[in-house]
Amino acid sequence: MAVSIKWVLILAVLLLESGCWDSKPIQNMVYVTAIGLDYEEGNFIVHVQTLNFSNVAKSENFEIGKNVPVWLGRGEGKTVSEALSSIYATSQVRVYWGHVRAIIFSDRMLNATDSVKHAYDAINRYREVRYNILVYGTKEPMTKILTQKSIFNFSPLESIMDTPEDSYSQRSFIPPQYGYRLIAEVSEPGRTAMLPSLATVDDSWTEDQKKKSMFKVDGAYMVNTQELRGWFSGDDLKGARWLYKKMKRAIVNIPGNGDPIAALVLKLPKHRIETYLENGELRFNITVEVQAYVDEMVQNTSTKKMEQEAEAVVREEIKSTYLKGVSKQTDILNLLGELYEKKYKIWKKFSDENQLVLKEDTLNKIIVHVRITNTGTYKGKVN
């Protein structure tokens, strides 16, 4: 009886241990946090950014300013899947994809036919990868982008590439883009999708007297029906921000040209797009309503004049961005997307007749209303 109990206990211990044989300590795995995709001479080239989470996990012993090493892996293949899989050959330990937070496409990748949709589809067939991945384009070498550090030597997980919402909440310029939304937008015939472009700048921050390179979103690639329409700089895209639903705040000097009389913070814009036909031609009117408060007063000016000057700035930015798009037949303001959603029959008719063409007068009116809700400690004139 004692012998049988002994063997039962031994068997139970073996069964419990067998359940842990396939487990891996977290420090003995490769965690991919970002993927860079390039395309050259018919081959897909993949760079993966990997981090050791024992170095970046915040704990009582976490040391601000400590340099966090970044390891990059490189793979190549005729398909994205083959390029990703080739990394396994030299990874030494298991590769885990569940912490991927960003995908970056090179210029060459974006110019390849159906590259964005094809690559995103391949990556999302990895069951560990999530759908809410940030996506970017870049003109810079992928190795430079993926080894970029953050301020105070924080890990890349604390940079604009991985946490853009923090920066966007203070300066709402080009909104973050997520993979699931990008695929939906490029698959919709009437809509033009915006893919932020990442760059590095080394003339804004220093550590003591040593220049430190930092990320900047310097513009965006515009994609329509899976075709790259071109790259536009941040200045080109200024007017588009007033039509973003999630735009939070932006600072503008008034007037737009010449010496400023004040700086205003404009926030929470609301817009309406009216589509109609005039003598058989497409026409659009845009109405924007936005709140504002005074951030800096250079000259004592009436509230009414500041509102009028701000309205002129917003109106001119929208018009300028629209005309930048017309020059490349790119619907930056998504006017045709609005037509597709609200008046599909008209969109279909013009599409079938190849008349979905943007002209300078296609955008007819731009109506802007700015209301200053707070002048702060500055007591400007009421009238």
Automatic annotation (TrEMBL):
Principal localisation: membrane
Keyword Hydrolase: no
Localisation per UniProt entry: Membrane
Entry keywords, A to Z: Germination, Lipoprotein, Membrane, Palmitate, Signal
Topology in the lipid bilayer: Lipid-anchor
Keyword Mitochondrion: no
Positions of the Spore germination GerAC-like C-terminal domain: 219-376
One Pfam family named in its UniProt record: Spore_GerAC
Domain Spore germination protein N-terminal: 22-198
Family, similarity comment: Belongs to the GerABKC lipoprotein family.
UniProt name for this protein: Ger(X)C family spore germination protein
Organism, as annotated: Paenibacillus baimaensis
